[in-house]
Amino acid sequence: MTLIKSRQAQGSSPAPDSAHPERPPEARQTGRPGTGAGTDEGAGPADAAGTADATAASERYGMPAGSGGRRGGNLLRSAGLLGATGLLVLVLALSIAVGAKQLSLHEVVQGLSDPGSPAYSVVHEMRLPRTVLGLLAGAALGLAGCVMQALTRNPLADPGLLGINGGAAAAVVTAISFFGVSGYTGYIGFAFAGAAAVSVAVYAVGGGRGATPARLALAGTALNAALISYVNAVQLLDTASLDRMRFWTVGSLARAQDDTNLKALPFVLAGVLVALALARPLNALALGDEAARALGSRPELTRGAAIVAVTLLCGAATAACGPIVFVGLMVPHMVRSLTGPDLRWMLPYCALLAPVLMLGADVLGRVLGRPAELQAGIVTVVLGGPFFLYFVRRRRVARA
After folding, report:
1. What is the pLDDT of residues 317-331, one digit of tens each?
2. CA 295 to CA 141: how far, in whole Å?
3. φ, ψ for residue 253, nearest 5 deg
4. Which is it for the CA torsion 57, 62, 68, 72, positive or negative?
5. Cβ atoms within 10 Å of 190's Cβ, excluding its own
6. Is the dihedral of CA 357, 358, 363, 367 positive or negative?
7. What's the pLDDT tens digit per position in 1-48?
8. Which secondary-structure segment (H or E) carries 152?
């Protein structure tokens, strides 16, 4: 009898949590408080912060985050790459069709395909070579600027920040003035020697294996100022070579030739491949040296490879068309607003959109300067100066 009553008492006891729907769901979670093991409310602020940092690091470094939103973002970026490719094709067509000498569309088409056409020499000997050079030099400078900004963690960095453009320009001016060198074949060797020498000097002055982004930027700025002074002094003292050096130092695509493009192509391709291969290591480096090592990257090797890539890209572009500025500064900023800071997307975008800026500036210079033309380097300075001031002001407002 006692056994039956005890069983009835057990049967009338309160039901478990599942029988009380009015009880909040989070109160039914299991797990030890404060550990986050099997519970939502047990996750403390440190756990949440750690999870956020891990997610950011995984996405920045390229590890899958398993997020549907991230997949949607990648689709949008892929569509953007297609749009950038279409824009580049359009500018390439404009570069061939538009020039200081006005040609109809029919004449341009005939000049492309008919050797007997009066426009054949204009299209094949002038416009096609400078279009190809603009494509190569634009991609080289855009990628170099993107790598520089990632390497130095300085949004105002461009290939001139580390003095690499200045070193190439100083070496070419020396070759023109003191050794009588002319043509791309002669320029390219001196340009690479100057760019490489300045890269080594900046790396050594910046601290060698212990170099930091701030030290590299300061060393490069100081050396670049000295090199620009040297170039100006040589131009003033050597009046015989002044015109040739002045035209080259402004930066122009007008003297492009097929031979020049073929000689620049291997160096640009090598620099592009190295830069694209550095996307993940530079993403990791942006998190800091210690975090980069934890993710399996080697910061010293990454910095050295980045300087090699920038040297190849800037040396080839500077030797071919002179030290054109602002392309490596403007394009990465525009791209970053579209893709975010992930270099796996920024580098391909820069390789496509920097030639758009370069060729667009060249076409604009041809149209505005008719019957002569304005050099592309002058147009990029006119466009880049206001952009630089706007960006600096926007950063000051954001910090205020």
Report:
1. 988 888 888 899 889
2. 29
3. -100, 0
4. positive
5. 22
6. positive
7. 444 444 444 444 444 444 444 444 444 444 434 344 444 444 444 444
8. helix 128-152
